[in-house]
Amino acid sequence: MSSELGQDGLASSAHRNGGHGHGGNGERDPFLVSLGERVRSLRARKGMTRRALALGSEVSERHLANLELGVGNASILVLRQVAQALSCELAELLGDETTNSPEWLLLRNLLQGRSDEELRRARTTLAELFGQAPVESQRMRRIALVGLRGAGKSTLGHMLADGMDVPFIELNREIERVAGCSLTEIHNLYGPNAYRRYERRALEECIERYPDAVIATPGGIVSDATTFNLLLTHCFTVWLQATPEEHMQRVIAQGDLRPMSGNREAMEDLKRILQGRAAFYGKADLSFSTSGKTQTQAYAQLLEALRQHELRLAA
Prior knowledge:
The protein is an alpha/beta fold.
């Protein structure tokens, strides 16, 4: 059955493209050509004949030949079968950056299977090696609050900044300043990729302009690894946590009914977003729950938690 699925997945896709993966002008698609070259190169590296690969992947030689020539638009299932037969990751077939050289592959193999703590130590060591590690005393002078909307980033951020007598920075406002338009206009006119670029530029400018500050970040800042790494490198980060129900209630209490508008599954969506981001939020220096606390209680307990990390705080 997998053989029929694999062959049909490749042949039918090629047929839909109007000619075995060719573009509308009769030229082969550059991505498919590169894909074919990677399959051929990996097969050669493994010392496998095309017949052996066909047997191992349960994909016919004819379809493999088309794939290697860049004229077969394979389905994801076919590519998975081929990757398994070549004993490599699917990303290696698709051309992930970490597959471009032997050194990348050796590094990836060295890091594979390591714990989060081991990977964190490796990342910080590499940052020091390449001169990207900041002076720790400087990093501790900026507090960045991360988490979903409704966690208390703006409220507690203002209170912390007032108590520390430092500027409070709402990164969303800085993004609008850099872009010269509202967040809604950025998304509608330029799209999410442009928004991420403005977000990174705004954060870079904040780090350069404010040696001391409390920064409230957008909930999706963890979506871009480069921007989030910049935040972790230059700020003491705090993940403000709350239950999904509290996140939703607080946003609605602020007068924003968009989370519930036209979406009966809003709560499930919120839970999925939180679940998807939790591992990244968890990279923060400190995790602090605001659940079941008044603003005064949350502020007092957060101050105490920060003092235990020897941050410079007002009495």
